[in-house]
Design a protein that fits this description.
Layout (H helix, E strand, L loop, with lengths): L1 E12 L2 E12 L12 E2 L25 H13 L15 E3 L24 H17 L7 H10 L11 H9 L18 H14 L8 H10 E4 L2 E4 L10 E5 L2 E5 L6 E2 L9 E4 L3 H5 L22 E2 L3 E4 L3 E4 L6 E2 L8 H13 L6 E2 L5 H22 L3 H13 L23 E5 L42 E3 L4 H15 L1 H6 L8 E4 L8 H14 L5 H6 L3 E2 L6 H7 L6 E2 L1 H12 L10 H4 L17 E3 L9 H12 L10 H15 L11 H10 L4 E5 H4 L14 H14 L4 E8 L11 E8 L13 H4 L3 E6 L12 E4 L8 E9 L2 E4 L12 E2 L5 E4 L7 E2 L4 E9 L27 H4 L2 E4 L15 H7 L1 H6 L4 E3 L13 H5 L22 H13 L3 E6 L3 E2 L4 E10 L14 E8 L5 H5 L4 H7 L1 H5 L23 E5 L37 E7 L2 E5 L9 E4 L5 E4 L8 E5 L2 E5 L9 E4 L5 E4 L9 E4 L5 E4 ...
Parallel strand pairs: 3-15, 7-46, 18-19, 18-35, 20-21, 21-22, 22-33, 33-34, 34-35
Antiparallel strand pairs: 1-2, 4-44, 5-6, 7-8, 8-9, 10-40, 11-14, 12-13, 16-37, 16-39, 17-36, 17-39, 23-24, 24-25, 25-32, 26-30, 27-28, 27-29, 27-32, 31-32, 37-38, 40-41, 42-43, 44-45, 46-47, 48-49, 50-51, 52-53, 54-55, 56-57, 58-59, 60-61, 62-63, 64-65, 66-67, 68-69, 70-71, 72-73, 74-75, 76-77, ...
Helix pairs in contact: 2-9, 4-5, 8-9, 11-13, 18-19, 20-22, 25-28
């Protein structure tokens, strides 16, 4: 078919723009033949308006209208509006313009369309023909009437022609400010051609050529951030990031940077296609609804959903022949109608992928083409139905398609994932009352009524929170509803009497309950359960009855014990304080362990010597459980090693298997990364403690994974020994203390090493001084524990443990003893070598030393553990106490007592034990076989796993591993089929076996949630967080939603629900007389719940059905329904005229939905995902408005800002949330972690802002800074609290580096310099960091030191600066200099304050001193070596002596510098010549000494060098006036010539001597020389 189209293109005539109609021929062909891209349809440019000229259409009815007439008639019927000349400017009551909306002028411009390419294949040409025919039929009554086009050409494009005049004037000025920025990643670039972006930029710059800017500084700042990258313009922030979905005012115009890439787009240009298409054609007539009854349409509570099928009037049998339908001929609504154009495109593309389509389509495509393609898809579907013979395949296919659509899947449910989850299953929905879903209304739904705040107002404040999450998992029971409360009681009764009810066997009943998730349920349930136990079992009448029905609470809040006490609860609370103390004292990594002291005092029952006999509170204690400290560890392993995109609580079984491989390997290491340390130590302390019942966890004795009880943990043997020893020895009074001893090491991070001792004295002895009885003598236990693997005692350290006067002079032996390889255990006296026995002294004290106690690091112990008991106990000794038959005077069901301490609970399962592969591996079977072992361990109450048949929906850990906490029928306890733990018979037999050895059975009562019910209901829902607070920006707010909230009464709920209420009320009327605290009402027996429905729930988890699964017409906002006679269906499918699309007239732009209704007071989304609003009159709005009480903003092209920032001319920024509502006067977050603040005008806080009484800081994107130190624009540092976000005042805070500390003064600014804070004088550098362990020179030149730990200024003490550089600081904190008397020492400090050690110093008085190399003390009356071999002697005043000195028995000489002279000739001041020994330095006397080489001296008895003729021994020698001996020379001595031998120096006698001149001289016997002239 050839069709004539008219295009309007702008041409310039002189100074005016005019529209010239261009006539072209357009071939209507199949998508693949359009010649653009194989299988893809490209629409005309969005600025093109296509108008069909009037033509006579073929009709089957006489008098059928022309397309134009049909269009006008259809519009008149659809709108029923007043004529245009009577339209007023009134606005809907719900929509108030913030400022007058501008009428958008528009001109029409077209881009040339690419020429078509021939089809590639025969198949394509065949398809072309088929689709062409469908389009032809569709277009028989299609397209916008020509009469309306005349107005459209004025409205189609908002940009005025005159705006383009300024292009050349402004382009250069702007582009001079735009530079490339390499920081923008390619992935953030818009996929448009660069030249088109350039054109947009030019046009928008031209638009800005207005009079003088509103704010020139702001405009300059904006322009400085706009960068051109690859031909596109981006707003690049100071940190290099691209700002996206951002609108900014510039010179009176709006620049918009898109949400996907951040590229600048033209906000004046319409993004939708203009023109309408008729929805009426042969297919719409045949596809019309046959009827509107429930038999004709599949609905949920009368509402059509995306999965609805219906009976059309005709079916296109085999894709060929229209045939009247039968009752069984149902078809999917989505084959004939779609809620919007985008969904229709997605449908066509999906069907194309399934081989049922007619090519692929992009968003911007003409409606007529979509209509034709949809008809071709319908033909192919009907053809396949004929071949298959049924529609089952189509049901599956359509269901799969529905799940791909964002409006019908989790993408529109504000799902949270990974560590940012606001709900364990990704999100929660709260049900609210609405006449559209009145069947689900409730007058209750009182949220967060936990023990902390049962009336809605907090009553307890130890824990400042309001309790646990209201919305924990799945369908959340409304436990404030009296009917639900009664049903919870009914279920509790069923469970407690399980054996009697299902097997007529009371020996298979339960004895007590564990109440699951106490902080997540309405606290009325706790009172109801207590009332039941008090009435049914008389637990308040005696300790004996209470213990027979021991029950516990999973109550984590620190407020819960006080609540339980105040309400006289019939269940025990957790001592969570002590649990945390044990975890952080012993079980955490060494780097974050605390001291051991909290294990004594941080507990519900302080066990210090001062308070151990004070008021006690009954409780139970554990350190690990099936979930606590196990599933969180597994979650960490999965997140860190396997799948970083999860929170670790939703995983695949393969991921779990990988995680347990890491978990089990880690558990068997000494240096653990994930699992806990010191599990035996924690059990030793718990099992020996007074005033608490211990609950031992299965996973501490056996591996958490694997088959039940098949593989022991590394801690099994130690805990086994403790359990057996507890029965025999643990009784009597208790004392705990910490003794500090050992060698401090820097790595320990403690000044001393605390060793914890805990002693039980035995029955009959409450104090160490009590003598007790014979029974006492063989009871009692001592636990010795350290958490320091580096513990090393000194030789003098003696740890004395007082075992009590009852145990004086008694031998003790170990039960557990730490060695380097692990723990040695000894079950009997005989097993222990006597060399290990220890004997108490006459006072009952055991003494341990460094040979007994040391720190170890092995698989079982990180520190030290020993458990000691007295020798001599009988094999069957039992130290436990039986329960009293008396009633507690306090009225409490449980009071701390020896009988209560004698109980032991065993949590006998793990979340992660494997599924049984053989019948004999089922947990309940294995339990029954091992009851005697449990008895030997002293177990009195066995906590069984939850026995409910598990849901398998896989949305959370519980339903993945099928541990029993995720169930769909609460009464189905292995009755419909085996649960994870076995069959019904296995369960009954396990209960019987436990009772046969007098072990009680505890059931798990889980009253908070129920999973994935089979029936669907329409509810009104709002997306909320865990506490039921609306999640900001969520699309689901007061919207109809389909929930899985119904049962049909054919399950066990139908059989047992409410079945016991009348009996219970008759027997125990007092239970039903109580007015419940949360709702002020009594429980009712009038409403027995045999079928669950939404009215009994608070809400559910998000189910992946999306925000719009319940179908609605977007234009009218009416849901499609046949409910109660109210029929809302697409017009074209009920034989009414209908057309769809955007169309403009003289008053603006209108929209008609895919159901044919005009949009009025409605938000509409186009095929590109953009949102628009049409006012009361049905026209598109722009600018700022108030709609339904919300401030919203629309660009010039009508697009609403959503999840977007807008910046005005003054630089103020405003945020519009995901729904487009402006955020005002509050904090706001989209992810629950990053917060912004907006004032009453909506201005987003940035920088330093005063809010209330505090200062807060927000970064350039408006995100609040918490827990960080920030430098504001004023250059000052402030720290903003990690919780409140307020700038802290008068307190310390850590920087990013944990070693950096700052102090913030009264003004919140980080202080610098010397500061007096409290009682301390501290110093902070110019950056505000506290100086610790450093020497600092202040501005007054004084030198100070600040302690390495406290940072306090050193006063009156020494401190070490750099290594071995010591200073002394006086009472003012200044480093002293010069000679100082400190204590009894005289010391010296140089001008830099450094103590001089091992050096010789010349003082100002010229005296020379020496200061000891070790102590630094001034040398007095002693020698000291200065430089190497330079010795000094310092007199009694400490001065270095000089000159000749008599020291002890030596005569020594020191030069004028104080240095001792050794091996040198010295001439004294008296001219005497002396010599001092080269080694000793002693003055030479009566001896020869060689000075310089061959220069000899002789020193007399006075030490003086002799001169002249000297008789020395047998020799006559001669010495010059310098003392030097003459040798080989003739000397004139008193006028007589004498010669002294050249070798010996002896004077020549009676011999001839040849002289130097060759002459000879004769010396006579007296040595006188005579010259006879002999030659």
């Amino acid at each position: 078919m050839m069709e004539k189209k008219i295009h309007y293109k702008m041409h310039k005539v002189k100074k005016n723009w005019v529209a010239i109609a261009l006539t072209t021929l357009a071939l209507i062909v199949a998508p693949k033949v359009l010649g653009l891209e194989s299988g893809v349809v490209h629409a005309d440019d969005v600025k093109q308006v296509v108008v069909q000229e009037p033509a006579t259409a073929q009709t089957s009815d006489p008098g059928q209208q022309t397309p134009a007439q049909a269009k006008i008639a259809s519009e008149q019927e659809a709108e029923k509006v007043t004529p245009a000349d009577k339209v007023t400017d009134d606005v809907a009551a719900s929509e108030k313009p913030a400022k007058p909306a501008e009428n958008t002028e528009a001109t029409v411009q077209t881009n040339a369309q690419e020429p078509a390419k021939p089809a590639d294949t025969k198949e394509a040409s065949t398809e072309k023909a088929a689709v062409a025919e469908e389009v032809k039929a569709a277009n028989a009554i299609t397209e916008t009437p020509k009469t309306e086009v005349a107005d459209q050409n004025k409205q189609a494009r908002p940009t005025t022609a005159q705006d383009q005049e300024g292009d050349k004037r402004e382009k250069t000025a702007v582009e001079d400010k735009i530079v490339a920025n390499p920081k923008v990643a390619k992935k953030d670039r818009l996929p448009e051609p660069a030249q088109k972006q350039g054109a947009i930029a030019e046009r928008m710059v031209a638009d800005q050529a207005q009079p003088a800017p509103v704010n020139a500084d702001h405009d300059d700042d904006v322009l400085s951030h706009i960068k051109t990258i690859d031909g596109k313009n981006y707003y690049v922030q100071d940190d290099g990031t691209v700002k996206k979905n951002f609108a900014v005012e510039l010179n009176g115009r709006i620049l918009y940077f898109d949400a996907e890439t951040g590229a600048l787009v033209d906000s004046n240009e319409y993004q939708f296609q203009q023109g309408t298409s008729s929805l009426n054609n042969e297919f719409s007539q045949k596809n019309a609804f046959y009827g509107t009854t429930d038999k004709d349409i599949e609905t949920v509570d009368g509402y059509l959903t995306a999965d609805s099928w219906y009976r059309p009037k005709f079916i296109l049998k085999d894709g060929k022949t229209w045939t009247a339908s039968t009752e069984t001929d149902l078809r999917p609504l989505l084959m004939a109608w779609w809620p919007d154009k985008r969904t229709q495109i997605n449908y066509l593309n999906y069907m194309n992928q399934q081989g049922l389509g007619a090519g692929a389509f992009e968003n911007k495509v003409e409606q007529a083409l979509l209509t034709g393609a949809s008809q071709q898809v319908q033909r192919k579907i009907e053809e396949k139905i004929g071949k298959e013979g049924d529609t089952k395949w189509l049901r599956t296919l359509m269901g799969a398609f529905v799940k791909t659509q964002p409006n019908w899947n989790i993408k529109t449910e504000s799902e949270t994932t990974g560590t940012k989850k606001d709900h364990l299953q990704g999100g929660a929905l709260l049900y609210t009352n609405n006449e559209k879903s009145s069947h689900a209304d409730s007058k209750f739904r009182l949220l967060n009524r936990t023990p902390t705040s049962q009336t809605g107002t907090p009553k307890y404040f130890i824990d400042k929170s309001n309790g646990g999450y209201e919305f924990l998992l799945a369908n959340d029971f409304d436990n404030s509803n009296p009917a639900v409360q009664a049903e919870q009681l009914n279920w509790l009764h069923f469970m407690m009497n399980f054996g009697s009810i299902v097997a007529n066997d009371p020996t298979a009943n339960f004895d007590g309950v564990r109440v699951d998730a106490v902080d997540n349920v309405n606290a009325d349930l706790l009172q109801i359960a207590s009332d039941y136990f008090k009435s049914r079992y008389k637990v308040g009448e005696s300790e004996e009855e209470a213990i027979k029905h021991l029950s516990i609470l999973e109550a984590w809040s620190d407020n819960d014990p006080d609540y339980n006490k105040d309400t006289k609860g019939a269940q025990l609370a957790i001592d969570n304080k002590l649990r945390l103390s044990l975890l952080y004292s012993f079980m955490r990594n060494l780097s974050i362990r605390s001291g051991v002291e909290p294990t004594i005092t941080n507990s519900l029952n302080d066990r210090s010597s001062e308070k151990k006999n004070g008021e006690r509170m009954a409780n139970y204690i554990f350190v690990r459980a099936h979930d606590s400290e196990v599933q969180t560890v597994i979650a960490d392993i999965i997140r860190e090693n396997i799948n970083p995109n999860t929170d670790g609580l939703t995983f695949t079984m393969d991921e779990l298997k990988q995680a347990f491989k890491i978990y089990n390997e880690d558990m068997r290491k000494a240096d653990k990364k994930y699992t806990q340390f010191n599990i035996p130590t924690a059990h030793a302390l718990m099992l020996s403690n007074k005033d608490s019942i211990t609950r031992v966890y299965y996973g501490d004795l056996y591996t958490d994974d694997g088959q039940y009880m098949e593989k022991k943990s590394p801690y099994h043997d130690a805990i086994d020994a403790l359990l057996r020893a507890r029965i025999k020895y643990v009784a009597g009074g208790q004392d705990m203390k910490v003794t500090y001893m050992g060698v401090p090491r820097e790595a320990d991070k403690w000044s001393y090493n605390g060793i914890l001792t805990s002693v039980r004295y035995g029955t009959g002895a409450n104090e160490a001084t009590d003598e007790g009885t014979a029974e006492t003598r063989t009871q009692g236990m001592a636990v010795i524990a350290s958490n320091n693997p580096n513990l090393k005692l000194n030789e003098w350290d003696k740890l004395q443990v007082n075992m009590g006067a009852a145990h004086k002079n008694q031998y003790y032996r170990p039960v557990l003893l730490t060695t380097k390889d692990g723990i040695s255990r000894y079950l009997t006296d005989e097993e222990v070598p006597q060399s290990l026995w220890k004997k108490t002294d006459a006072n009952g004290i055991l003494t341990f030393d460094m040979n007994d106690i040391a720190g170890y690091s092995n698989v079982q112990v990180s520190g030290y553990l020993a458990v000691w008991v007295p020798v001599g106990a009988k094999a069957d000794q039992d130290a436990r106490t039986t329960a009293s038959k008396k009633k507690n005077a306090s009225g409490q069901v449980y009071e701390s007592s020896a009988a209560l301490d004698s109980q032991l609970i065993y949590e006998g399962f793990s979340n992660f034990q494997d599924f049984a592969t053989r019948d004999d591996q089922y947990t309940n079977k294995v339990i029954a076989k091992n009851v005697n072992l449990f008895k030997e361990w002293g177990v009195t109450s066995f906590e069984l796993p939850p026995q409910y048949v598990s849901s398998q929906d896989g949305t959370f850990l519980d339903s993945i591993i099928q541990n029993g906490y995720a169930f769909e029928d609460r009464y189905d306890m292995a009755m419909s089929k085996n649960n994870k733990y076995g069959s019904l018979k296995d369960l009954l037999n396990a209960l019987r076996a436990l009772h046969s050895v007098n072990i009680q059975a505890i059931a798990d009562w889980v009253p908070d949630q129920i999973y994935n019910l089979p029936g669907k209901e329409v509810v009104t829902a709002t997306r909320v967080n865990n506490y039921g607070t609306y999640r900001e920006g969520a699309e689901i707010k007061e919207k109809l939603y389909v929930a899985n909230s119904k049962t049909n009464g054919t399950d066990f709920q139908g059989k047992y629900g409410g079945a016991f209420l009348d009996e219970l009320k008759a027997k125990y009327p007092e239970i039903f007389e109580r007015v419940q605290i949360s709702n002020g009402q009594k429980m009712t027996t009038d409403e027995k719940i045999t079928k669950w429905s939404a009215k009994y729930f608070n809400g559910t988890n998000i189910l992946g059905r999306g925000a719009y699964y319940v179908l609605k017409d977007w234009a009218s906002n009416d849901y499609l329904t046949n409910r109660n006679g109210e029929i809302v269906l697409p017009k074209q499918l009920v034989n009414k005229n209908a057309y769809t699309g955007f169309v403009s007239d003289a008053n603006g732009t209108k929209f008609y939905s895919t159901s044919g209704y005009q949009a009025k007071n409605s938000f509409i989304q186009d095929e590109n995902g953009n949102w628009y609003y049409f006012d009361k009159r049905g026209y598109l709005v722009t600018g700022a408005h108030e709609i339904d009480g919300k401030h919203v903003y629309f660009l010039k092209n009508g697009i609403q800002l959503r999840d977007s920032i807008r910046e005005d001319e003054n630089g103020n920024q405003y945020y519009y949330d995901q729904t487009g509502a402006q955020v005002l006067n509050r904090y706001y977050t989209t992810d629950g972690q990053n917060w912004r603040y907006f004032d009453a005008k909506g201005v987003m806080a940035r920088g330093l802002v005063k809010i209330g009484d505090g200062q807060q800081f927000f970064d350039e994107n408006g995100y609040q800074v918490k827990g960080k130190i920030v430098s504001a624009k004023d250059g000052k540092l402030r720290y903003f609290d990690k919780d409140s976000g307020n700038a802290v005042i008068n307190r310390f805070a850590q920087g990013d580096n944990p070693s950096d500390w700052y102090y913030f003064g009264a003004d919140g600014v980080a202080v610098t310099g010397l500061q007096k804070i409290g009682q301390q004088t501290l110093y902070f550098d110019q950056d505000g960091k506290q100086v610790k362990g450093k020497i600092v020179t202040l501005s007054d030149k004084s030198i100070r030191y600040f302690d390495a730990n406290s940072g306090e200024m050193a006063v009156g003490k020494f401190a070490e600066g750099a290594k071995n550089e010591w200073y002394y600081f006086d009472k003012t904190g200044k480093a002293v200099t010069g000679l100082q008397k400190i204590g009894k020492q005289t010391l010296y400090f140089d001008q830099d304050g450094k103590q001089v050690k091992g050096k010789v110093v010349t003082l100002a008085d010229k005296s020379i001193r020496y200061f000891d190399a070790d102590s630094g003390e001034m040398a007095v009356g002693k020698f000291a070596e200065g430089a190497k071999n330079e010795w000094y002697y310092f007199d009694q005043t400490g001065k270095a002596v000089t000159g000749l000195q008599k020291i002890d028995k030596q005569t020594l000489y020191f030069d004028q510098d104080g240095k001792q002279v050794k091996g040198k000739i010295v001439t004294l001041s008296d001219k005497s010549i002396r010599y001092f020994d080269a080694n000793s330095g002693e003055m030479a006397t009566n001896k020869f000494v060689e000075g310089s080489q061959n220069e000899w001296y002789y020193f007399d008895q006075d030490g003086k060098a002799v001169t002249g003729l000297q008789q020395v021994g047998q020799q006559t020698l001669y010495f010059t006036q310098d003392g030097k001996q003459v040798k080989g020379k003739v000397v004139d001595v008193n006028g007589v010539s004498r010669y002294f031998d050249a070798n010996s120096g002896d004077m020549a006698r009676s011999k001839w001597i040849q002289l130097e001149d060759g002459s000879w001289m004769y010396f006579d016997r007296d040595g006188r020389g005579q010259n006879f002239g002999r030659n």
